[in-house]
Design a protein that fits this description.
Two copies of one chain form a homodimer. Chain A is built from seven helices and three strands. The first copy, chain A, is mostly helical. Chain A has one domain: Winged helix-like DNA-binding domain superfamily/Winged helix DNA-binding domain (Arc Repressor Mutant, subunit A). Chain A has a three-stranded antiparallel β-sheet. In chain A, a hairpin with a 7-residue loop joins β2 and β3. In chain A, α2 crosses α4 and α3 packs across α4. At the A-B interface, α1, α6 and α7 of A face α1, α6 and α7 of B. Chain B binds a DNA duplex through α2, α3 and α4.
Amino acid sequence: MVKTAEHTVGERAEQAMYSFVDAYDRDYGAAATAFDLTVPQVCVLVRLRQPRTMGSLAVELECDASNITQIVNRLEARGLVSREEDPIDRRSRLLRLTREGLRIVRGFERAFTFARDAVGRLSPRETEELARLLRKARGPG
Amino acid sequence: MVKTAEHTVGERAEQAMYSFVDAYDRDYGAAATAFDLTVPQVCVLVRLRQPRTMGSLAVELECDASNITQIVNRLEARGLVSREEDPIDRRSRLLRLTREGLRIVRGFERAFTFARDAVGRLSPRETEELARLLRKARGPG
DNA sequence: TATTGTTATACTCTATAACTATA
DNA sequence: TATAGTTATAGAGTATAACAATA
């Protein structure tokens, strides 16, 4: 590994990754807070742009179904999400954004500017190259 | 913005960022869980490789001091961190990793392989370029 | 009087286990 | 009997406010 003055190239790259991920996550959290939402609540809401069941949310978010129940309870109490019975399988609940829920999701997406800003700081060529390198660095999986 | 078949370059780049950040965060969380630690606990422990006060931790982690108190209480109860009185300012507590705490931090750092693996998937030239683009994309701040 | 840290309180997330109602 | 979802419970993070000890 190529040594620079103090650090290896790999160490400097790892530091750059950490700094980028940290900035991304902070902006995401700040945008959620601006709408009085938690990050898990936003994760649910943005997925509900397409209606889904409790179970599919649990799979996608890789968390327990009882967890989803609690998060959706709070979103429903705030009038952002509705539960419908599925007439085909009456055990199942189909979740939808309410009009207000959609408004909040759109507001969040406007408020979360980090990724757009990042693209804005790069030339089109650099943007393509960053996307390629991120995908290669992330690897399969 | 240049259009491809379905998405703009910017949208594809934003998707690549999201996917990278998500993979980074998951691996970080999984490494913490492997040592029966939460992410906030790890954030405290890794900073304590250099001894610090409660207050400086609160500033660095941008959270309330009472929050730090609770996290440190749990780490101290597990014997991973010690509180010392500062003889100069007796209001202040100097926190240190115990021997066991240091062992856990090292174990975590070995278990958190995502950033190292990412570097391993790139050539040295690509690694340098990724670091440069991440820093430029992140911007000042 | 200001600062460092703690305690008390309340809300949220998360996981496990036990439960209901369907299938 | 198995599946979708809920309820009960407990540990942990987070923020605010009130507090103690010290400066």
